[in-house]
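Recap for those who missed Tuesday's class. We walked through two folding examples back to back. For each one, the amino acid string is listed first and its predicted structure tokens come directly after. Nothing is annotated here on purpose, so try labeling regions yourself before you check the end of the notes.
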Amino acid sequence: MKKYIILMVFLISNIFYSQVGIGTAQPASSAILDLTSNDKALLVTRVPSAASIVTPINGMIIYDLSVNCFRGYQANAWTNCSFTACTGPGPTITTQPISGSACSPATYNLSVTASGSGPYLYQWRKDGADIAGATGSTYSATASGSYIVIVSNPCASTPSNAAVVTVNAGLAISSQPSDVTVNVENQTATFSATATGSGTLTYAWEISRDGGSTFTPITVSGYGLGGNDQTDHDMVVTNGTTPTLNLKWVSPAEEGRKFRLKVTSSGGCAANTVYSNIVTLHTTNSPAYIFDNNLCGSLSGWSATGPVGPHTSNPCGMYLNPGNTSSGGVIFRDVATTIGQSYTLSVRMLGSGFNSSQLIQAYNGATLINSVSNSGDNFVQLTFTATSSTTRLRIADNGITNASDGVVYLTRLFAN
């Protein structure tokens, strides 16, 4: 038993710590493998091409059948042919790669043509570094940079001229908008998205009132929506020319409305258009309106005294002082109210002419119940508690002559 153990230890140590000799009983002391033969040779691994080695390691040697020569892998790159007789000059590049641009996701195709003694080897480089696997006479560039190709034969290597490639970003929505839920009367609904692409980007928000089947542009002029967006008392757009859409004065009627962003590019890649995902506006805490009026084209239940007239451009409403007179104008209406009940009158005003004397008021006969003033372009709310069964609501201009005297275009009343 002891003899077998000694023999096993000897064999294991011989396998792991001694040299291997084939054809010789005494392999060289500095060689791990010593081959000796009078009529046999070492046959190195033959592969269709260097690219066939998926994960090359420094120190590998192959016979590359695509160019019929030995090649080694060193410094993380395949060498040119070795042990190949040089039968002519190095390659001459007759067609250089050409600079150009492409629009992602398309690629820009580079190519080279060489003359002279073959076979040829190609290695493309980007910004001075070899491109893994780019060993053909053509290459499809997917990124911007400076590209050259090294063309080699058994005699020499020749670099091409540099080709500068620009790959422009294609138009895309990089950040999609999300659904928004807003409290009616006191919040602004904000939809936002982000687009990327070359050239000049333009934005247009669109609205759908039929569940997303059809969309129409939201046309913005000043502070209001044009067309049906204004007359349907939808909402006010403050920055509709950017990827962000702010909607003020949201009413319960807007529940479920659909929106999307249209983005168009020009001047970079070929002009094209993309659309964002469709998003939905939801409303919550909607009051039961006693009235909800748009004053476009008519007083819609209000009466007028003094200089009051229609403001027909966008926004469409009632001009309280169209002639810029010193007397000013007033609109008023009487509404049935419950004594002791709290109410809120919401008024959307427009025009820099509004100042501290533009008043929104509630009266019990000749007695003032409450009053608030407005300055600038605002959404103003008057809260009051009824002291009689009929309350007069009044919106008055102060009569200061000003070319920008204001417009009242949306009014709502609800019980708190």
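Example two. Treat it independently of the first, because the proteins are unrelated.
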Amino acid sequence: MEVDDSCAALERLRSLVADLLDKHLLGSAVFFADKLVSLSDGAAEDVFLLAQAHVCSGAHTRALALLRAECLTSASPRFLHLTAACLVATAQFDEALALLGEEGTEMHVSSCVCALSSSPPHSRLSTQLGRGRR
């Protein structure tokens, strides 16, 4: 019974972090994701959520350090892409290319650059709202 309660609490916490990320409450998302990683003993899924929260808040170096510390930089394609995006954001282009390998690196790096250079949704919305008032 206690194990079920613990699993349910972790699932509620994961749901909370995802909801906070969706609502762009990044400081809170980082806080609760950090607690989630601690409570789940560093489960890969939870480390990914924390790294994603760091990236969303602009802390690419912190996300990269977390992924490296947990040895998850290339655990799956999503970890690989997140790590490469962090490397590109911190101008570590050679490492990003080495991580992605020779095949298709132009596509991967350009997608990372595009993802990082696109404006956040809230700034696009304010631009659209500003145009509507003219």
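Answers for example two:
The chain has a mean pLDDT of 83.
The domain at 2-132 is CATH 1.25.40.10 (Serine Threonine Protein Phosphatase 5, Tetratricopeptide repeat).
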